[in-house]
Hints:
This protein has a single domain, classed as 3-Layer(aba) Sandwich (Rossmann fold), CATH 3.40.50.2300. It contains 5 helices and 4 strands. The protein has helices spanning 16-28, 46-54, 67-72, 86-89, 116-142, and strands spanning 4-10, 32-38, 79-82, 100-103. The chain has a 4-stranded parallel beta sheet. Helix 1 packs across helix 5 (116-142) and helix 2 packs across helix 5 (116-142). The radius of gyration is 14 Å and the shape is globular. 37% of the residues are buried.
Amino acid sequence: xxxxxxxxxxxxxxxxxxxxxxxxxxxxxxxxxxxxxxxxxxxxxxxxxxxxxxxxxxxxxxxxxxxxxxxxxxxxxxxxxxxxxxxxxxxxxxxxxxxxxxxxxxxxxxxxxxxxxxxxxxxxxxxxxxxxxxxxxxxxxxxxxxxxxxxxx
Length: 153
């Protein structure tokens, strides 16, 4: 059985898309091949590294990647899932082939304010929401259902 290729996209590829990639590969790597990229790749967010470590997943060695470089290489994906706000999601390129594009909006840990502990707690909540959405996505795809276009549905 061929693995379904999934690309998670957010603005900087520093937190949300990295979390989604790590969870999908960890929870269903036998059926999915997850990747992530950003519209404006930045540096890995230490908050994301911290909360993923707390979940037993080490993303500290990950590099941020450009969605436009992936697009230019002509890579094909069964699903392209944006995990940023709707405005940023509209800037994503349209990938060739038979691709289902989904939008899951999660708060950006880079915008969190407060003490380190407060920002970690908020990022942990994002991590847990991402994991829950990934688990739902896996169930939907495995059951043959078409995944909801928006996490709110």
